[in-house]
Amino acid sequence: MARIASVRRILYAALALSFAALPLGPLARAQTAWQFDRASTEVGFVGKRFGAVVTNGRFERYDGNFTIDFEHPERSRIRVTLDTASIKAGSPVVDGFIAGESMLDAAHFPAASFISESVSRTGARSLEIRGKLTIKGVTQPFVVAATVEGDLGRAKRGEALPFQASGSFLRPAYGIGREVNIVDDQIDIVIKGRLTR
């Protein structure tokens, strides 16, 4: 009887381990956590006037968390945060103006953020990412078009993933520069670089 009980315990333990591994095994392999490779990534912005670029620059401090599922992109999740005081647009005067109260108001709103709500494949190497962009405490829908530029097979094995992503918002929707008329309302955000594990 003792031997039978021992065999039963071993069988129950094996079954428990098997069932415990079922929901987590494929998911753990499918979804992986990534972050910006800061040495090769730039988060920039572009402002135009009648189609011509009149201002552009970058954010020097930013952060990003990416949970990517290559086989099922709709399961992916993305969060990006920008330090609004870290703007660099060519000169200290311009930097201070853009970070100032009438524009980004970095003193009162030190961070802008994007959080994804849905991710969908639009091509073999392209995605549409829909979510919410928050600037100056105002949250609005925001759409990002992203393209993978590297070898997907190598990325799945853990190598860096080159990409570019872009989206546009309207300044009045966030109360940015209401009196500024030297740049159009639309501002483009462009991110180009690499993701690493």
Written description of the protein model:
The structure is a single chain. This protein is α+β, with helices and mostly antiparallel strands. The chain has helices spanning 2-30, 92-99, 152-156, and strands at residues 31-36, 42-49, 52-59, 62-69, 77-83, 87-88, 111-121, 126-135, 138-148, 161-170, 186-196. It has one domain (30-196): Beta Barrel (Lipocalin). The chain is elongated, with a radius of gyration of 23 Å.
**Overall 3D form:** elongated
Strand line-up across the major sheet: 1-4-5-7-8-9-10-11
Biggest β-sheet, characterized?
A: 8 strands, antiparallel, barrel
Query: What do we call the CATH topology?
Result: Lipocalin
Unreliable segments (pLDDT under 50, ≥5 consecutive)?
2-29
Number of separate helices: 3
Number of domains: 1
Q: Tell me the series of helices and strands, N- to C-terminal.
A: HEEEEEEHEEEHEE
Mean pLDDT: 87
Q: Just give the CATH class.
A: Mainly Beta
The CATH architecture can be given as: Beta Barrel
| Helix content percent band | 10-25%
Output the radius of gyration.
23 Å
Q: What gap, in angstroms, lies between the N and C termini?
A: 52 Å
By oligomeric state, this entry counts as single chain
Total number of strands: 11
